[in-house]
Amino acid sequence: MKKLKLGLPKGSLQDATIKVFGKAGFKIYVSGRSYFPSIDDETIEPVLLRAQEMSRYVEEGVLDCGITGADWILENGSKVKSLADLVYAKQSAVKVRWVLAVPENSKIKSVKDLQGKRIATEVVNVTKQYLKTNNVKADVEFSWGATEAKVASGLVDAVVELTETGSSLRAHKLRIVSTICESTTQFIANKTAIKDSWKKKKMDQIAMLLKGAIDAENMVVLKMNVQEKNLDNILKQLSSLKNPTISNLSQEGWVAVETVIDEGRVRNILPELKMAGAEGIVEYSLNKVVY
Questions:
Q1: Taking the CA of residue 20 as centre, how many other CA atoms within 13 Å lie in the half-sphere pointing to its CB?
Q2: pLDDT at 165 (0 to 100)
Q3: d(Cα 207, Cα 256) in Å, to the nearest integer?
């Protein structure tokens, strides 16, 4: 039996990844400190690895595919194939960013002011490339953690740190000078593995199901009963993936309307639907939406 070697990210992405796989239809079980989870698909061999290392092992063929951040692919300079861009559900619409930050009272106002300075970061190669692009020479050192504290205590002049909203940086009294790069979660594949027809088909199926689960996370279904005389007013309030589904009810002059809608709109649109004549309104969540 053929097997697909799948890398799952250990650490901050682990719980979100396992949850998304669950909604996609794959039950993954992680026991204790084991790096080898079990999955209810005998054709998949999962292994837990740090996201920082994932792209290297996928590129080398140790793994057929895996999930990691676009930033770590860039940092490692890995030659891998991206099968899906996975913006995990219910996160901020803003992509995570690696930003150059300095103390609030620093005289550094732009990247040019970093000439000859010291910078601490986890993404050393990405930072060096950014400095090279801007014709700046500075000392970039790898940080094993507590990066924000290093610049706040004066150990380094600046940091390149991961942020989504910038609130943590502000809490440490740091000021963002510029954005180095943006990143999203990627489902990646080994370039040789995708030439294998069985593996390619399996990976495409996983990618489709993961995307379907993620796309469904912020969507809900609204169902309601409507008198035909009120149907035009109801349809003006609704938007869906294509068009609402309309079917006749057994009671003459009434129809059932069903549509998929962004969950964030429901609290505003539901009272309007009621006022427009909708009755028996039902809302329920989705597991997957496949376009």
A1: 30
A2: 78
A3: 34
Q: Residues 236-267, buried b or exposed e (16+ Cβ, 10 A)? A: ebbebeeebeeeeeeeeeebebebbbeeeeee
Residue type (1 letter), 161? E
pLDDT of residue 93: 44
Position 241 pLDDT exceeds 80: no
Q: What value does the mean pLDDT of the chain take?
A: 91
Quick one: tokens of 190? Answer: 């080994």
Residues 111, 177 contacting (CB under 8 angstroms): yes
CA distance 65 to 83: 9
Q: Give the DSSP H or E segment for 118.
A: strand 118-121
Cβ of 72: how many Cβ atoms within 10 Å?
23
DSSP-assigned letters across all residues of 82-107: EEEEE--TTS-SSPEEEEEEEETT-S
CA distances from 285 to 244, 261, 279 (A): 16, 10, 19
pLDDT digits (tens, 9 = 90+) for 40-60: 999 999 999 999 999 999 999
Taking the C-alpha atoms of residue 244 and residue 249, their distance in angstroms, rounded to an integer, is 15
Question: If pLDDT is split at 50, 70 and 90, which confidence band does 129 have?
Answer: very high
CA–CA separation, 287 and 291 (whole Å): 13
Q: What angle do CA 21, 166, 17 make, to 5 degrees?
A: 5
Q: What are the pLDDT digits (tens) for 98-121?
A: 999 999 999 999 999 999 999 999
**The token pair that represents 193 in the structure block:** 């593995």
CA angle 177, 162, 207 (to 5 degrees): 130
- Identify the sign of the CA torsion 126, 130, 132, 136: negative
